[in-house]
Design a protein that fits this description.
Elements (H helix, E strand, L loop, with lengths): L6 H18 L1 H14 L13
Helix pairs in contact: 1-2
Length: 52
């Protein structure tokens, strides 16, 4: 039975695409993560608060 939309397949393709991008430009991942942290006001986890 073929699904109308396969979420697992879609996520796999997204991860593969991002992996290729980040292999070409490793700094891009860090830059995007910083933008997300700033947008949602998240802090980096440190050893002190990593066990939330």
């Amino acid at each position: 039975m073929e699904k109308e939309f396969d979420a697992v397949k879609e996520m796999r393709s997204i991860r593969e695409k991002l992996q290729r991008e980040y292999e070409k430009n490793p700094g891009l991942r860090r830059k995007r993560l910083e933008q997300i942290r700033k947008k949602y006001r998240l802090t980096k986890r440190t050893q002190m608060n990593s066990y939330r």
